Amino acid sequence: MDALRSYGVCLREPALRSPRLRRGDAYKRIKRGHYKFLTTHSNAFGRNVQWRFPRAAVLPNFHLPMRSYEVKNRTSTEDIKALRLITAIKTPYLPDGRFDLEAYDDLINMQIVQGVEGVIVGGTTGEGQLMSWDEHIMLIGHTVNCFGGSIKVIGNTGSNSTREAIHASEQGFAVGMHAALHINPYYGKTSLEGLISHFDCVLSMGPTIIYNVPTRTGQDIPPCVIHTLAKSPNLAGVKECVGNDRVKQYTDNGIAVWSGNDDECHDARWNYGAMGVISVTSNLVPGLMRELMFGGKYPSLNSKLMPLIEWLFHEPNPIGLNTALAQLGVARPVFRLPYVPLPRAKRVEFVNLVKEIGREYFVGNKEVEVLNDDDFILIGRY
């Protein structure tokens, strides 16, 4: 105890705090007209020590990436580039707002059976923006643990905070995700140099898809930024929502691109060289979306799906998808606010769309129904 007391006293000694100026203290001039204050005094052990004002030290690369080079179950960037159909998977909820993992697992299994090759976990469609990071990483880990051998798991670990994006990506790869999806910083937008620095910080950790959706972020990621980042061997490609002319700019230069627009994905794939699509519609009709990506040019199927796609995006995603999955009985009619279901007229319209396309092409095995307003549960606190 005496040793502990002396240690505690030592930490409080004036030798570790800024000393008072006394007669006889000296100033030593240093370069550029600055002065360094020097004083000699006794510390707790009776020794004379010289005190100087502390100077900040910058240590380059002090925070090294928290990553592993263990190759077991790892996925290469080339493996990610080979994916044609990736579903931005929906996250279902229990009535109290927690994840409905049973419904989630069923939905993932339906994707696997219908030939989907990858899933985006916790993206915009999966409402990652409404999750805590604990929930987010847990869902990524759960998906890898249960389905990682059958489907590629791409975790949305992007953020408008570089610090958060780094931390989430470290955790996502640590729990086994095969690749990361990263958006550019939104709301608190940065410069082009800032975009490059932001993405450089996360590209070192593993295969990465960069997501460009200016309608949500308020800032386009221009080709000059992507071409700079393409020097990294970990850039798997770009999820591009600007349009097919932009898609062609990248594919002509050997950069992998997935269409981020379901209404343009058929032409992007077969006319503009896209690898495939990261799709919302495939939550509902995964088999038909696979035909669209693997079966060659199929304009008649594309036209058949267009009314459904337009219905899905009548309001901002994922409002339409959440409503549709509830009507199909695949997910409970539970919404985390600020999302609310489509109005009754649009719900009736969806039932008619299902009948026109064919119930057998949609996920689930229950009859589609028109839900009433009071069937839905809206959760503000969870």
Brief write-up:
The protein has helices at 2-11, 77-81, 101-113, 133-147, 162-174, 192-203, 214-217, 223-229, 244-251, 265-271, 286-294, 299-312, 319-327, 344-357, and strands spanning 26-29, 35-42, 48-51, 85-88, 118-121, 152-156, 179-183, 208-212, 235-240, 257-259, 276-279, 334-336, 377-379. With 382 residues, the protein is α/β, with parallel strands linked by helices.
Account of the 3D structure:
With 382 residues, this protein is of the alpha/beta class. The chain is built from 14 helices and 13 strands. The chain has helices spanning 2-11, 77-81, 101-113, 133-147, 162-174, 192-203, 214-217, 223-229, 244-251, 265-271, 286-294, 299-312, 319-327, 344-357; strands at 26-29, 35-42, 48-51, 85-88, 118-121, 152-156, 179-183, 208-212, 235-240, 257-259, 276-279, 334-336, 377-379. The chain has an 8-stranded parallel beta barrel, surrounded by 6 helices. Strands 1-2-3 form a 3-stranded antiparallel β-sheet, with no helix packed on it. A two-stranded parallel ribbon has the order 12-13. Helix 5 packs parallel to helix 6 and helix 12 (299-312) runs antiparallel to helix 14 (344-357). It is globular. 38% of the residues are buried. Mean pLDDT is 88; it is low at 1-19 and 23-39. Belongs to the DapA family. InterPro entries: Aldolase_TIM, DapA, DapA-like, Schiff_base-form_aldolases_AS, Schiff_base-form_aldolases_CS. It comes from Rhodamnia argentea. This is 4-hydroxy-tetrahydrodipicolinate synthase. It is an enzyme of class 4 (lyase).
